[in-house]
């Protein structure tokens, strides 16, 4: 049986975590891996219903995600977590529980997040109309030393996924040949399109 592992995507709402998670899921399935995506919003709806947005409730939600990720990964599943998980100490706790772990900081500046936000939540939070909005009226503690920083304000999803895959391959979690194929595909796009 293949060993499981966890790719933990953390970052502000709208940064691109779900998009990257879906792309990673496709790539892992192509490799023939059993894979599950644990999306923070979906987990909150089904396993953490009733929790609010206090620090204690947010930490409880992240701990529940880590618990489920642990159950899956110890049974050979590749797990992709997509959750804001705003507090460094709780993410570090998840890392210590999970072991085979890649932390990815999906980074995006507030200006770009506000531009992308079709619901206008960032604009409302910046005006003080929404309390406890992570990154605006509630803290988000950036990871200090993530394995990967995916800056979605400057790089494509494909490049972010290729960089994450390459890191996971370097740790022995996924096929390194597939990492090279992704890099070649990106290089070909650069030659045709002029940029990544």
Decide which structural class fits the backbone.
alpha/beta
Biggest beta sheet summary: 5 strands, parallel
Q: In percent, how helical is the residue content?
A: 40-55%
- Rounded mean pLDDT is 89
Unreliable stretches covering 5 or more consecutive residues: none
The CA-CA distance between the termini, in Å, is 36 Å
Overall number of strands: 5
Integer-rounded radius of gyration: 17 Å
* Percent of sequence in beta strands: 5-15%
Number of helices: 8
N-to-C order of helices and strands: EHEHHEHEHHEHH
What is the topology, as strand order, of the major beta sheet?
2-3-1-4-5
Oligomer: single chain
Shape from CA axes? globular
What would the keywords be for this entry?
196 residues; alpha/beta; five-stranded parallel beta sheet; 5 strands; 14% strand; globular
């Amino acid at each position: 049986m293949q060993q499981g592992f966890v790719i933990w995507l953390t970052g502000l709402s709208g940064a691109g975590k779900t998009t990257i998670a879906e792309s990673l899921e496709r790539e892992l399935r192509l490799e023939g891996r059993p894979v599950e995506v644990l999306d923070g919003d979906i987990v909150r709806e089904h396993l953490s219903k009733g929790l609010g947005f206090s620090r204690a409730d947010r930490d409880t939600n992240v701990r529940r995600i880590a618990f489920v990720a642990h159950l899956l990964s110890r049974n050979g599943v590749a797990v992709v977590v997509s959750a804001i998980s705003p507090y460094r100490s709780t993410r570090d706790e998840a890392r210590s529980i999970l072991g085979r772990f890649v932390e990815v900081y999906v980074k995006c500046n507030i200006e770009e997040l506000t531009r992308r936000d079709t619901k206008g939540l960032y604009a409302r939070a910046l005006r003080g109309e929404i309390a406890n909005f992570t990154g605006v009226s509630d803290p988000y503690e950036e990871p200090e030393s993530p394995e990967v920083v995916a800056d979605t304000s400057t790089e494509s999803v494909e490049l972010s996924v290729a960089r994450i895959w390459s890191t996971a391959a370097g740790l022995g979690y996924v096929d390194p040949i597939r990492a090279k194929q992704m890099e070649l595909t990106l290089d070909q796009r650069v030659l045709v399109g002029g940029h990544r």
